[in-house]
Amino acid sequence: MRPWRKGCAFIVLVALLTSALVGSPPVSSEEPVKNEVSFEESAAEAKRLGRLSLCAGKEGKERESCLVACGDGWPLQEKCADWRRFGDIGFRLLQEAKKGDDAKQLEARAIKKGMTPEEARRLRWYASAEYNLLDPDLLPKKDLADKTMAKNIDGLLYGPSEHEVAAGRHQVGKYEKSAGIYAMVVGMLRKELGVAHYRTVRVLLKAGKYSWYAGDEVKALDYFGDAAKGANAIFPEGHPWRAESNLYHQALLHIIEPGPKTSLELLEQSQRQINATYGQDHIRATRAQMLFGRALAARGDIPRARHVIFHAIRAMRHTISDSAPFTGHGYLEFANVALLNGEDWLAKMALTKAQILLERYHEPDHAGRIRYHLVSAKVYRRWAQRWVDEESMKEAEKHAKMAVQLLERQLGKDNAALAPYYIELALIYREQYNVKESLEYGVEALKLTNATFGGNHPRNLDSLDNHLELLVAGNLPEKALDMLGDVYKARRRCCGESRELIDNRLAAMRAYHLQGKKREALDAGKEALSIWRELIWDQLIEDVDNMRSAFLLMIAYRPLHHVYSLQEGDEKARFETYLNWQGTGIALARAQKHRQIALSALGKKEKEALEAWEGHRQGEKLLPLAEYAAAKKVLEAKGVVIDPSAPKLATMDEMCEALAARDSTLVAYQSTLKVDAESSRQGRTSGELYYAVYTLTPDCELAREEIGSVREIDAMVAAWREKVTEAQQCYKSKGSPLKCYKSFLAMEEDSAKLHGALIAPVAKNLKKEARLLVVPDKSLVSVSFDGLVDPVSKRYLVEDHQVDLLPFPSALLEDGARAETARLSSSGKKKRGSSKKRKRSALVVGDIDYASSLPSLMSALETWQRCTSKGCDESFSSKLSSKELTRRVERVALRGEEDVPNCGVGVKWAPLRTEARAVAEILGAKFGGEVSLVTGDTAVEPLVADAMQSRDIVHIATHGFFADEKKCYEKMFGGDLISALERVFEEGGAFFDITGLSSIVLSGAEQPLDESTPGLDGLIDGSELGALDLTRAELVTLSACETGVGTEFAGDGVHALSRSFLEAGARRVVTSLWQVPSEPTSRLFIDLYTTYATPKKEVPLPRAFREAKLAAIKRSRAAGVQHSSFLWAAFPMVVTR
User: Fold this and answer.
1) Which helix (H) or strand (E) holds 1000?
2) Are 501 and 530 in contact (CB under 8 A)?
3) How far apart are CA 175 and CA 214, in angstroms?
């Protein structure tokens, strides 16, 4: 074709592109453009998000240019972005520049006006990229001979048609037409100019983006690869076009083809360079950051991907709009990574927000909805799995089908980009037991990836793994096993340890089980769990979130049942599997706490390096490569392990040694089920759950008993809890144990049934007076083992044994030296040569005034009382005198409320006269004056929380509660997912922690919330407690109601206040299982501390607590109360050593 024909052809292409995307006829002025946001809307939103304060504090010319750029509208404007990035000088120079000006001369003027050479060079690059200034150093020697064609290409890249195309693209979403036209132009430029030409690079970048938007990732990867090759040849290091080309290429490589071709270093370097030129909150930078986050997720670095995408969206909200279509796509990616992170509630919230925006801006057939439907299908499938919800699974199927239909319409049915969508549909049909359609879609996905990628390409391995799992589900294990091993080896070579590798091993486990090969099945299952354990550790060690950890462990718990079943007959191996999985969530939290405390002891230089490194990792600020290496070097020199690996697996022999050292017997309960061949084939855990109990003696004698179905025993627990509630109601109304004889008796009759189910089967393994360390599971966490009644002897279990609870079985194996180091570091470094023992201390809180307004923190602290052997001083001077408080205190039979609304906020709490003063005087005599008594209106939340961190004993006598999750959720979020999401983004990314449902009540709790001090609500919830450093605390006692009650998770204990204190590092915790009677509770704890504080006699706290309970039993029997467990048995002691 002759040159003039080429020029004409390109004019036609430009015309076709504009008409195809914008449409003919033009949009009527009477029909508002769907994605248009009015000035009033944008200004209101800007004001709401605090954007119009950009010019506050600016003076002179700087303020003048700021107001011109940002003060009269929405910071979406390019000129505001210019001002934010380059300040007054750069902004004015850019405003004066015209298309076609010399960018090099602009750089010289910038330096002359005072900009640094580095910033002036960035301004030059920015001007050439965004304002179309010519850069003489980058002009090629060879260019298009046909000037008309060159002009038309420039028009396509930079001209007015660009804005028309953009508007049309957002409105109509026909990306495939754009991609087709750009493909023709790319072919022409490759032939005429080669890839190492600035025109070709820019067109390749655009073509890649349009192909990607259309869903054709394979073609996009080809374009980005050539763009990177050309850009690296012609643009200098740090140039934004070079950085953008490399980032898009590397990101898609990570997503499509992870392996040796990918480079995290190049990916990070490219993101740094884009940030350096545009500023971290510029639209180009945030778009790049979104893709960077997706690449990290593809690498398996889910927590970091979440941080990066979160910060990208946060930047968009403040500099673009929370209502822009691209922000909607950002929320969609956040939903996807939250799902991968185990935050399914958060994923649902972000998906809801994305849905609102995408439906507002995109028509149903818009290509931008393709990925929305795919992520929606994944989210709904997860919900269906978690809640066994058929409607959610139907919703997942609907979205997956819509995604497939849209993509087939865009690309045809022969494009490999369809494979992940077919696989999602196959997985949904598999969950619905529709093996036929599941296999059909699985085969189609495999055909596409095999034809496009072939061999050991990761996309083909995904299809192969899915197909092989479906073969197992279709009862064809022999066909699957032939290839599962090969796929496993190939995936290990290309991608290392990943979730896909876990799925491969689980499929192999099921296939071997179907063939009756138990040993091979067990090996595959154990390897899957080993990889999963490491991945969970990586995800949670730096950011433990209770709800997320519980869910991730719940996913792991399904194949655990299978492994337990396969280990039948090898009880030692089965026990060691249990030992290393039961309570993994709280074990992770405690390990993280020790790590945090160890890091807090670092010097200033190391802390600065750590802060910089964490900011880099979490996407807040990518460090330059040299600074990153320097920070890492400083930390490693001090022995700081940046990415700690999971601790080694515990063994039964180690547990035997720990038990022998404590002369204790382990009694550990486990809920599990037997997996037969059929449930193995389906990849499901079917059958009825049952309880098993392990006993392990100090002599290392192991026994395992199956004690009954979970359904039956949980029903027994529920019946006993009902009797406890009846006893509560009786005591609350009558206030006398003798008047509640019948309800107390009924409670203990059900207690005797529980003894028969839980203790009788293992009684033969328990020596008389042996100390029992009990690990409960599921509903058993709400059982008072102390108060279980032997139906034959009529004795309580505490009368025959000292009974303490363990939060998880391997708690006995925690590194004592590490814990001691942590305690020392929390109280300051020990001076060399000093042999002086640290004084022990205590904090006692009680007799609280819930109604009065709070004093200032300083005045509250000044009126805390100091207690010694002579008693507590009388400096107490709250708003209510002791006499006035006594007059206001009514006789309160029980501590707590039966139904706590609104997450405890605004509740009227009955005043309590407690044992606080007596306990403080006892401990003051023991510790010699290092005891603080906090009463009245001085128990101010931040002061109490801070004081807890430096005390050996913490005793809090007040109300406590466990709130209903639904009511609490509605209180916190207004029952609105969007409101909930707003809170997440306004408060820094943390999500609702399930331990926040439990709280203790302090001064001022009845006062209305003050928006200026949102943290002062008079409540300390479990999530706040878990963030404290309580590694110094030998004992934390909550003399309050229901502080041990919470949300139960199989295999991970109860998420309640007791767990929060343990996560914070406390050695022993006492909480309550029901609303406790006030007067007997006071006496119980006075006896505990009296025994503990016996002069010249060191009584361990657990033994002292048992003696206090025995004294309560004796006292009750002397008073004619034979059935007294309601009065004293609500308080188990949870220990970790």
Assistant:
1) strand 998-1001
2) no
3) 5
- Strands 1068-1070 and 1133-1135: what pairing? antiparallel
DSSP 415-446: -GGGHHHHHHHHHHHHHTT-HHHHHHHHHHHH
Q: Supply angle C-alpha 662, 668, 674, rounded to 5.
A: 150
Q: Supply the pLDDT for residue 620.
A: 55
CA distance 483 to 446: 13
Distance CA 332, CA 51 (A): 24
Q: Where are the beta strands (DSSP E) in 171-244?
A: none
pLDDT of amino acid 170: 38
Q: How many CB atoms lie within 10 A of CB 659?
A: 20
- The tokens describing 911, both together, are 């005043």
Is residue 468 within 8 Å of 683, Cβ to Cβ?
no
CB contact at 8 A, 332 and 403: no
The whole-number pLDDT of residue 909 equals 82
Q: Phi/psi at 1041 (nearest 5 deg)? A: -90, 145
Query: Please, what is the Cα angle at 605 between 599 and 609, to 5 degrees?
Result: 70
Model pLDDT, residue 306: 84
Q: End-to-end CA distance of the chain, in Å?
A: 85
Interatomic CA distance for residues 417 and 407, integer angstroms: 8
Instruction: For 851-900, give the secondary structure using H, E and C.
Output: CCCCCCHHHHHHCCEEEECCEECCCCCCCCCHHHHHHHCCCCCEECCCCC
Q: Both tokens of residue 269?
A: 């370097």
| 3-class DSSP assignment, residue 685 | coil
State whether residue 828 is helix, strand or coil. coil
Strand partners, 569: none
Q: Please say whether the beta carbons of 200 and 229 come within 8 A.
A: no
Quick check: helix, strand or coil at residue 94? Answer: helix
Burial group, residue 86, by CB count within 10 angstroms (0-12, 13-18, 19+):
buried
Pick from 616, 547, 26: which is nearest to 304 by CA?
616
Q: Which residue, chain included where needed, has tokens 């007791």? A: 1058
Angle between helices 977-986 and 344-361 (to 10 degrees): 110
Q: By the 8 A CB rule, do 1059 and 980 touch?
A: no
pLDDT tens for residues 1023-1034?
A: 788 788 888 899
Give the separation between CA 377 and CA 902, rounded to whole angstroms: 33
Please tell me the predicted confidence (pLDDT) of residue 43. Answer: 42
Q: pLDDT at position 483, please?
A: 84
- Residue 908's SS3 state is coil
Beta-strand runs (E) in 1034-1078:
1035-1038, 1047-1049, 1053-1055, 1068-1070, 1076-1077
Task: Return the structure tokens found at 1103.
Answer: 């033994």
783 in helix, strand or coil? coil
* Rg of the chain, C-alpha, whole Å: 33
Full DSSP string of 607-651: HHHHHHHHHHHTTS-PPPHHHHHHHHHHHHHTT--SSPPPPPPP-
Residue 681 near residue 510 (C-beta atoms within 8 A): yes
pLDDT at 1007: 79
- Calculate the CA 617 to chain-centre distance: 16
Distance CA 396, CA 194 (A): 46
- Measure the CA–CA gap between 728 and 743, rounded to whole angstroms: 9
Structure tokens at 134: 């010519």
The pLDDT score that the predictor gives to residue 3 is: 31
Q: How far apart are the C-alpha atoms of 1027 and 1005, rounded to whole Å?
A: 21
User: Per-residue pLDDT tens for 215-250?
Assistant: 888 889 999 999 999 999 988 888 888 999 999 999
| Whether the Cβ atoms of residue 963 and residue 999 lie closer than 8 Å to each other | yes
Report whether 669 contacts 693 (CB < 8 A).
yes
Q: Of how many residues is the chain composed?
A: 1137
Do 384 and 431 meet the contact criterion of CB atoms below 8 Å apart?
yes
Query: With a cut of 50, which residues of the chain have pLDDT below it?
Result: 1-52, 73-75, 158-172, 546-547, 550, 681, 683-686, 816-835, 875-898, 974
